[in-house]
């Protein structure tokens, strides 16, 4: 299994690409929505693709961008055509269709898996996700260099999720992402949905559980058959002054640590704990 740090705009916050590589990271994420609107996919392409833009020689994965538009932008509108929205930094209205998403991800040029999917809102979006997958497959200009993962939707409804899985596994794609989860639902329901998904997805292709990064969830979901994970949790936690250690988390902004010069974890070999 692999955990992938999130570099939304081409960098993991608080870390350089060289530091990520030194930690053993061999794949990280970029976001189609953010990179496509600022600085724009054409500028990234001219800089040598996302690899050149980041100075990153290893694998990359980019997402479809639809989730960010619906969750972050109040004035976005989802239709069969795509997601229509006003860019947060100003400018003309943009339509991000499956074809446009693939065009941007092809221009970003990452070696890894661009993803195709619909913002989670079953039951309406579940069949639409399948139709959008077909449009993405047809529009994909670099299938030999970039692997396209299908995003399985269906929320917490077993029948909807199974219906989506049955349809998507009929398409010849290199891997599958499990979407529509990790949104605050009860753990028992979340784990049941993950188990249902992994039981019915091909075992000989990667099964990527999106947006999961809590330690307990990683252990449980690896046991349930998931191969890939991503989450902003580690970097976001660090930015707010917390350190993740084997016995839990330390709130480093707590007054009791103000004059404590000991390493965070004396048994850890990371650069921070070695000082």
How would you sum up this structure in a few lines?
With 275 residues, the chain is α/β, with parallel strands linked by helices. The chain has helices spanning 17-22, 32-46, 49-54, 66-72, 98-108, 125-139, 158-168, 187-200, 215-223, 233-239, and strands at residues 2-4, 27-31, 59-63, 77-78, 83-85, 94-96, 115-116, 149-152, 175-178, 207-209, 228-230, 242-245, 248-251.
Describe the structure.
One of its GO terms (biological process) is tRNA modification. By secondary structure, this protein is α/β, with parallel strands linked by helices. It folds into two domains: 2-240, Queuine tRNA-ribosyltransferase-like (TIM Barrel, Alpha-Beta Barrel), CATH 3.20.20.105; 250-275, no CATH class. Helix content is 37%, strand content 16%. The chain has helices at residues 17-22, 32-46, 49-54, 66-72, 98-108, 125-139, 158-168, 187-200, 215-223, 233-239, and strands spanning 2-4, 27-31, 59-63, 77-78, 83-85, 94-96, 115-116, 149-152, 175-178, 207-209, 228-230, 242-245, 248-251. It has a six-stranded parallel sheet with strand order 1-11-10-9-8-7. The mean pLDDT is 89.
| CATH topological fold name of the largest domain | TIM Barrel
Helix content: 25-40%
Low-confidence stretches: none
Task: Kindly report the average pLDDT value.
Answer: 89
Protein name: TGT ribosyltransferase
Organism: Loxia leucoptera (White-winged crossbill)
GO molecular function: tRNA-guanosine(34) queuine transglycosylase activity
Keywords: Transferase, Zinc
